[in-house]
Amino acid sequence: MKILAIDTSSMSATCAVVDDEKLLVEYTLNHKLTHSQKIMPIIKEALDSCSLKPEDIDVYAVAKGPGSFTGLRIGVATVNGLAQATDKRVVGVSTLDALAFNLPYCEGIVVPIMDARRDRVFTGIYKWVNGNLHIIKEQTILEVKELMEVLSDRPEKIVFVGDGTYAYKDILSESLGEKAIFAPKSANMARASSVAELAMVKAKEGKTESFFELVPDYLRESQAQREYNEKHCLIGDKNE
Asked: CATH assignment of 3-94+190-227?
């Protein structure tokens, strides 16, 4: 089975192809949010490097969120388009699951954090047990201070990964002291190979979807929707 996976949920645009035995190719561009311009050329380069065509791929996979609203829409639309053109199935993978998967077999707990703005982060808690990644706390959105309260009583080392570490590293270090460990640069960003490996497990379990079914998982309303709701509520209050 060959799986092509992409992740455009954050600053990075990344694509990988894996088969049952190995990672065949992985491309990552971590420079500016130009996913609409870059992701298809990256996909083409990845396929060409392996002498593959889109129809040679058995399953298409994508990081479906949380993350950048625009980035998620680009990623999901790209994978759904490729799957529709080749009549293949798709798999959506949690962006946070994939970030945690970047740090195999580490001790303690793994806490991916993605900046959700307004001092909030998308996050979850994971732990490797006997070579398998287990979800301790399901993905959610929290204020940074709330996350610190959740983590402060845990005795283990806490390994942070994701773009939220750049914005909140000082706060995390100050609150958690020596318990806080930060992923190296090579593991601290989206990797399509992690999305692909998680998708491989799902695909072999029969957990694939039609390209008609796969949608982004935003975990929150868009800014435009929030502003509409706030305006709507204000208007409603005035009319009461």
From this structure: 3.30.420.40
